[in-house]
Design a protein that fits this description.
Layout: H1 2-7, H2 12-25, H3 29-34, H4 48-55, H5 64-87, H6 95-107, E1 112-115, E2 120-124, E3 130-133, E4 138-139, H7 143-147, H8 152-161, H9 175-181, H10 199-202
Antiparallel strand pairs: 1-2, 2-3, 3-4
């Protein structure tokens, strides 16, 4: 939670205080993150390899050629689904960006505006008071220049100046950019008998890897890293965690509301 708040911080002072608290919890993590070059605020990365591994759990048991084909089919379905969704869009921005603007528009009515000049405005929004320079598209809260999308502080200034809100949104949120992302086609492979394979590829001999397999059943679940939360199973019968319904050894209550606590559950098997 602390790391997530640190990555989502917009202001430098907020980021500094959260970074200091994070360094106190894990002294080695602070210097490591400070070495990151470029934008350091509101930057979150996702481990794409873990996401793909979770989707291709069953397919990983297939040979490498079949695994590559299943991965291509998966990308093809994703690409077509998003391409169809982009073609049906009738708004100037993407649906997620339009929803964000609608939400920020409603929040802007709760903010008080005090003009300092023709370009600089002071906004009063509880503990998020700050300055907004609409001509430079900057604000002291740093949300405007980092997200490049209009939010509540800039929204009230735009309403006050009677300007178009879409002029202050980045082109990356536009419908045309979203549609252009999926203009390409992920072509399916023809039948294997119709493949045209060069001779240099046919002449190449690929031998299996020489390795020593470990005794026992091969591990399929992910090995969690240090600090990662591991989701524990919960039994549908006794409502206790650590096992599931098929391996439950606790007595099953007659009524679901009469679930005994973990201290009173006997160790004997079901009768």
């Amino acid at each position: 939670m602390l790391y997530y708040r640190c990555a989502k911080a917009y202001r430098s002072c907020e980021f500094g205080s959260l970074m200091h608290a994070l360094t106190l919890v894990e002294p080695r993590l602070g210097p490591y993150l400070q070495e990151v070059e470029g934008r350091q605020y509101n930057i979150m990365t996702t481990n794409i390899s873990e996401c793909i591994n979770a989707i291709l759990v069953k397919e990983r048991e297939l040979p490498v050629t079949a695994l590559a084909e299943e991965t291509r089919c998966l990308v093809q379905r994703w690409h077509y689904k998003r391409q169809t969704k982009a073609e049906k869009c009738k708004t100037k921005l993407t649906p997620s960006a339009e929803g964000w603007l609608s939400e920020q528009y409603q929040q802007s009515f709760q903010i008080r505006l005090d003009p300092a000049s023709n370009t600089v405005y002071t906004v009063f929004d509880r503990d998020k008071n700050g300055l907004v320079d609409l001509d430079r598209q900057m604000c002291s809260y740093r949300h405007f220049q980092l997200e490049q999308l209009t939010y509540a502080h800039a929204m009230i200034v735009i309403r006050h100046r009677k300007q178009d809100v879409y002029e202050f949104c980045s082109d990356y949120y536009s419908f045309t950019c979203w549609k252009a992302t999926y203009t390409a086609v992920v072509y399916p492979l023809p039948h294997q008998g119709d493949w045209v394979i060069p001779n240099k590829v046919l002449e190449k001999k690929v031998f299996p890897l020489v390795f020593r397999s470990i005794a026992g059943r091969r591990r399929k679940s992910q090995i969690p890293f240090v600090g990662e939360m591991v989701q524990r199973h919960k039994c549908n019968w006794c409502r206790q965690s650590g096992h599931h319904r098929k391996t439950c050894k606790n007595l099953i209550p007659l009524h679901l509301n009469e679930v005994p606590s973990s201290d009173t559950l006997p160790c004997s098997g079901p009768t």
